[in-house]
Amino acid sequence: TDTMQPLSATCLLALLALLPLSWSASHPYGANYTTEILRLAKAAHIKAYMSEDEPQPCDNFYHYACANWPRLHPAKLQKKRTNYLAELQELFVRKSADMLKTSTVGVENSADRLIRSFYNSCYDQANNTRAALNTLLEVTDFRGGWPEIRVPSWYVYEYDWLHAVASLKSRLGVDILIGLDVVPDYKDEQIHRLKIGAPQLPLGHRRQYLDAAYYNARLQYERNIADKLHNYFPEQSEQWCNEVAAQVLEIEQQLAKGLPHNAALTMEQTTRQRSVAEMKTAYSSYVDVSRYLQLVIKETLSVELYETPEDYMSNLLDVIRNTPKLQLANYTIWRTLDTLDQARIPQGVQPGIWCVQMVRQYFPQQLESLFHRKYQSMQMINELQSTWTDIRRVFREDLQASQQLLWLTPATRHRAISKLDALQLQFRQHDDTQLIRQLYGLQLHEQQFYHNLVNVLQWTTSRQLAKLSAEPQLADRVYKLPHYELSTNKMQIPITFLQARFFWDPVYPSALKYGTLGVLLARQMLHGFDEVGRRYDGRGNKNNWWDSTSESSYARRSQCFQEQYAVFVQYREKPVHDKALLSRIVADNGALSIAYRAYVQWLNNAPEGADGLQQERLPLLDHTHHQLFFLAYAQLYCNDYPESLEFFDELPEPLRVNTALSNSQKFVEAYGCSEGDKQNARFKCQMY
Ligand SMILES: *[C@@H]1O[C@H](CO)[C@@H](O)[C@H](O)[C@H]1NC(C)=O
Ligand SMILES: *[C@@H]1O[C@H](CO)[C@@H](O)[C@H](O)[C@H]1NC(C)=O
Ligand SMILES: *[C@@H]1O[C@H](CO)[C@@H](O)[C@H](O)[C@H]1NC(C)=O
């Protein structure tokens, strides 16, 4: 078994993760056997990512734990960062595909059936360009004909660009020439506002369209457009495809002139507030904002809107005035076609995986709810709660009595305890009746993917626009990792964390659970007690509950970290700009210490005897249980970055992991590091 290939190890784990949790229990005679397979698979999974060189854990522990990661999950394949926790997302998608493929008659509600129809139609039809095209012609109503123009005069005399653009917005949600959205008000958290102005242009900012430095990127973009057109219209000449592609780029270059020069400006800095009447006066009937809104939202607005960026609309006016209608029409049709084309299955992606992602994009809650019912995550919820209880207990005991936190005054510690006691885990609740009601009126058919897509887009758009009359909801935001929310003092747990056999299984060593889940929960918890979190109390109200003595001790202790981390200005010759560096450092170091102590407490209370400890070790790996804890911790952060990355907007994981470990005396002891080893910091900084 020592020769098990790394790749097959990860596949095996994925397979095992698909089985129901009751699997090993339901095979009483084979209980030992299945237990051993599960433990072997987990060990192989861990081992697969470890360095194959002469092990030097005291020199560079991240390398020791993760050196093989980039080989198995290279970032260059998708030009996207890969990391360990993303495996959880993949696992969720794979299980969802499995779930949507097979109907489990009897337990399905109408929402389940609807998302299954969407999934199946996607699976069968998403690659059918003919179907996409027919749908396009139906929804766009270009009566002059396209791509072959039968009535050119229609475009010249009757083509009403604003009407075309407005009706495509309400049918497909696509922003062509004009961007429209509903956003929370910048000042008043209770209301939404309509935002009108520039659409998101495919190439990006002004400089991508207008700077000489991006010439090649533009050429590539133009070629991609021509290729896609050719794919949809094989009968059209190459010249036609190239001409239309050139027209598209040219219009977008003209539009980009209305975008801000400085791409780093925030939305707020480039926005002005105006009434519809004012905009109508400013842009006359060439860009009749009032008519556009009337067509899209079908009501007259008296409140002010956000207009952003400020120069866009006046520039658009020039573009409309100076561009032939045929060219505007080509642009509009192309953008619509491209919107439908986004649903086509990309090369190299399995249809099942792709179609789950489509379902997840439009029906995230319905998918989660079905997943929740199908995989019965109750056992994982209990396990998470109990890990959380352990983490919280350790921190609470520190606050109550420990020598370690004497730098906080008794009064501040007292208030910290009441904030901690109020902190709750929050699992996403699904009200199925409400989810079903949301879908009411949405018609989907097994065999008509592109029709379905249009219906879904229309449904999504009208829901988005309807937010205008509703209050912004915090719960609308969904995070991929556990997330602590300052303004509610709650920690949201994403459903992907409720999957068995990744962090945790009854037959895995508990060291793995505390080193991963324990650390993640502790990190989030500490965000409530750092230099930002201390300004919010246990109810989430803005209210600084620290006294000045505690604040200055915090600042003094941060100084130690700041000096230690100050050397990390770049990594792999790329600059590091981490805006939340101090919070991150405090959470990294504190979470490691708290989770480790929670693990030790668990060990002390665990059933006595060799049997208990035997389970704390794994086959294939020669590690003690203390060593396993730190190994699991480090692997949580295995990742690979693409070469194209310009800078790191967060301190890169290898530096985070190694520095936090080098501050931990327990780590040094577990791996027997000596004085002078890189992983054994001479001055160990400590906060929590
Ligand atoms: C399972 O393992 C235990 C000890 O590890 C042993 O005593 C028991 O006989 C085994 N059961 C089976 C069915 O092999
Ligand atoms: C689109 O572009 C082609 C190629 O330049 C041109 O022949 C046609 O008239 C344009 N307009 C429409 C609506 O197709
Ligand atoms: C879908 O079409 C794309 C592009 O034509 C192709 O690369 C891909 O392999 C197709 N996928 C399937 C599942 O047919």
From TrEMBL:
Record's bilayer topology term: Single-pass type II membrane protein
Domain of life where this protein originates: Eukaryota
Signal peptide start and end residues: 1-24
Gene Ontology biological process: protein processing
CDD domains: M13
GO molecular function ontology, one term from the record: metal ion binding
InterPro entries: MetalloPept_cat_dom_sf (IPR024079), Peptidase_M13 (IPR000718), Peptidase_M13_C (IPR018497), Peptidase_M13_dom_2 (IPR042089), Peptidase_M13_N (IPR008753)
Parts of the chain that traverse the membrane: none
Domain (Peptidase M13 C-terminal) ranges: 484-686
Subcellular location: Cell membrane
UniProt cofactor(s): Zn(2+)
GO CC, alphabetical: plasma membrane
The Peptidase M13 N-terminal domain, residue ranges: 57-426
Family indicated by similarity: Belongs to the peptidase M13 family.
Record-given protein name: Endothelin-converting enzyme-like 1
Organism from which the protein derives: Drosophila rubida
Upper classification of the organism: Eukaryota, Metazoa, Ecdysozoa, Arthropoda, Hexapoda
